[in-house]
Structure formats: structure tokens, C-alpha cells
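Internal QA ticket QA-208
Title: Verify multi-chain structure generation after dependency bump
Assignee: T.L.

Test input:
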Amino acid sequence: MNVLQLKSFYAYYGEKKIINDMDMKIEKNKITAIIGPSGCGKSTFLLSLNRMLEESGGRAAGNILFNGKDIYSMPKEEIRKRIGIVFQKPAPFPFSIYKNLTYAPVYYGIRDKSRLREIAIDKLKISGLYDEVKDELGMSALKLSGGQQQRLCIARALTVEPEVLLLDEPCSALDVKNTANIEKMLRNLAGDYTIVIVTHNLYQAKRISDYTAFMLDGELIEYDETARMFSSPQNRRTREYIEGIYG
Amino acid sequence: MKKISSIFFNAWILFSGLLALLSASFIFIYILKNGFKAMTWEFILSNPAGIPLGSEGGILPAIIGSLLLMLISCVFASILAISTAVYIVFYCKSKRMESLAHVVIQCMAGVPSIILGLFGYTFMVANLKMGRSLISAGLTLGIMIFPFIQVRVEKTFREFSSSMLLSSYALGTTKLYTLLRLVLPQSIRDIVSAVTLAGGFAMGAAAPIILTGAVIFAPIPKSLSSPVMALPFHLYILTGEGISIEKSYGTALVLILLLFIINLVSISLTFWRKEATK
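Actual output:
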């Protein structure tokens, strides 16, 4: 089943076309990895999916259907609540860990203290951070290490109960151990959430994703099941990209 | 050659630093020395007396008047300034509108304070029939410090981390919620210090209030429409009319001490907040 569907979708920054005529379907409760060289439009693609593109001055044309409804005809706040995003550089709010996690639930009207606490602890457990910080929920989130901050940001994105989680190179600044933590978490999340992850790391795409899409110069070149994509790419450019990095 | 120029440069920096420090302390010590004799509890806590008025007695109504003027101008100016900054940074989509706003604010900052006083007089005192009063003078001072606060608050907002803003929008929250829950709490230290500095500036200004509300003698104001005494104007009268040199130094000392205390309170407030958010 498709949760997201792009129909002849274009994205622009000013006059510059970043994404050119893209058609794509994203499968529900699976992990889809987007790979491609720098500047190919991967991040712009991700920002388009929950309308964060317009916050950074971009413009979209064409359709993106979310459960069959065009996201550009829905309020952008609602789209962002249901399609969460985690950016490349973790940006925890300069509050306590606890307050980072209750920031959005409070906005959505949850006032009950015990309910808020439950949400915070639940999401920390999901992101694998709970055991490390359980006695220090009042500590400033800025004191966490980079990997912990990124997991906190993922936990924060989950506090609004999104259906889709978008991740823009979430591990690019992290070491091997933190990356492994996050990958394990994403695998666990995949049953309940649709995950779209942009990554530079082909090994990562291969390890965790069910589907992989290869983008080049704003176009979708190849899109297939991950195993098939890496063992027998159909397109010459996909093969060259995969082999080039391997070689 | 390089060495000589670096020695010269270091000496120049040292000289400039010392000059600033020395002239500031000279002014303070000079006023302290000359005003100290006038400083008694009676001077601070009683009304002006004697003939001519002010040659005896104290300056209580002027102290209260100045504090009230500062309060009114700060409240008025900070509401306007913060709203303007929020609009320009977060809501204004048109570049042209933004530069227009900046030009207007710069022009306001450049208007001589006596002209502002004249404006307050014709517009508020005469046209709006508000009379020479606490409110007319307070609002005129507010117009004077508005650009001062606005520029600083706008700078604070501009420096706010855009990745945090985006993270907040990405959770589906509105701009308003992001502003109230994330941006303002994080900027409050800078805003408070800008407003306090501006308040000190307003408290020390005589020109805008001469025509709009300050008088030689008035009791502590009972309402917003009462005329008011103010320290800088009182100082001007005492010295200008040659009423009492000793009392003018006393008044100057009180003014400086008040500004000192206000800044101290502001620093400790912001320091306390910094500790609390750690």
C-alpha cells in the first residue's frame, strides 16, 4: 500500500529547478532510502514531502498525494504533524530534555502532567536514549553528546505521533556506535512508521532499507527493492554510482 | 617596522581604554564629591521648598516622576518595538516593505529629541487635548526610545538559530506558538537589557519632556493626566536659573545612582535567568 505518491512533481529555488518531473510511490510501513551524489536534490525531495520546502524559500509544482489527498490542499501544520522530519544537524531546543519532548504535545493540547511524562518516557525508550538519561530528564538538552542529541530529535519528532518519519542524513555527523544505535532503532520503528531516509552512506541504505531510490540531477533514475537494486541495477548510471563508491 | 607599529597600536588601544574609563569615573567621582553634601534623607524624601522654589527641601516628586516616565515610555516603546521586530523578522514577506520599515525607523532614530518634544506638544498636548501631563511626556519619551529598542530586539531575533525555528515548524506548530514558547523565552534576556538601557536613556532626557509634561513644581502625580516633575528638568532649572548649585549636584547624583541601580537590577535579572535555564 502506498502512503505517499508523487505525480509529475517539480521543486524550485527561485528560478533554479531542483527536482524535475518526479513520479514515485512510497510504501507504507517500510524503509525507503534515497541515495545519490551531493546536490542531486535528495534533501529538497525530503523537504517537499512535508511542505518544509516553503520555509526555506523553495517552491513546488505538481502533486504529492498523502493517503490519496494532495498535501498542498491541506493545512501545512497538519501535514507536518503527520509527516515528521529529522534534520542532518541535530537542533534540540535549549530546554531540558523533558521540555524538548513535551513542547509539541503541549501545543496539541495535552496538559495532564502524568500523560506528558508518559509520552516523554515512551519516546525516549523508543529512541534508545532512556537508559542513558532517565535520572536527568531535567538536564539541558544541549549538554547531551551529538549522537544523543540526534536521538532526542528523533524522539521529539515522534512525540506528535506522525505516520511518516523523514530523516535527512541523520548519521552523517555521528560515529559508528551512534550510527548503529540509530539504525537499530529505525529497524524497530519500521513496523509502525513509514520511514524515508536520505543517506550518503550506501552501506547504510543496503543495511536498513526495504526500497532504495537513486536520484541524479533532480531526477529519479532508478527505484527498486534494495536487494535487487544493489545486486543487479538496471540503469547504467545507477551501476556506475554504486560501483564507483565501492571501488 | 612591524614591531614599532604594533607597539604604537597597543599603546593606542590602552590609551583609548584608559580615556574612556577615566572620563567615566571622573564624571562619577566629581558628581559624587559635589553632590554628597546635599544627599540627606530629607533631600530624597521631601518636596522642594524655599524661595525660589528648590533652594531648600528635596526632590521626592522628581524621583517618582522620573521613575513613572521611565515606566510609561518603556511599556509603550517595548510593546511597539517588539511587535515591529516580530513583524519584520517573522512575518514580512516583501523585501520592499522591510526596507521601508528600516528607513522609517532610522529616520525616527535621527530626529533630534527637542523636535520630538515639539511633536508631542502639538500632537498630544494641543491636538489630542491631553494637556501637559505624565502620559504626554511618557509617550513622547516612548517615541524617542522606540528605535533604540527595536533595532536591538530585531538583531536578537535575526540571530536566533534558524535550525531551531525549522525544527519547531517541522513539529507542525504555528509561528505564534514558536514565537511565544521558543523565541521569546530565549530572547528575553536581550530584550530586558535593551529595554532597561533604553529606560535609562529616557530617564536622563530633558528635551522631549520640557514642552510635554515636565514642570518646575508638581506633587507626586495622582493620575496620568497630571503634570509631573522630572530629575533632568529639575536639574536644568536649578542650574539654569542659578537656584542652588549644591542641590543641582545632589539631583545629578540621585539621577546617576538611579540609573546605576536600574542597570544593576537588569544585569542581575538576566544573570538569574541565565542560571535558571542552565
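Spot checks passed. Residues 113-126 of chain A form the longest helix (14 residues).
Status: verified.
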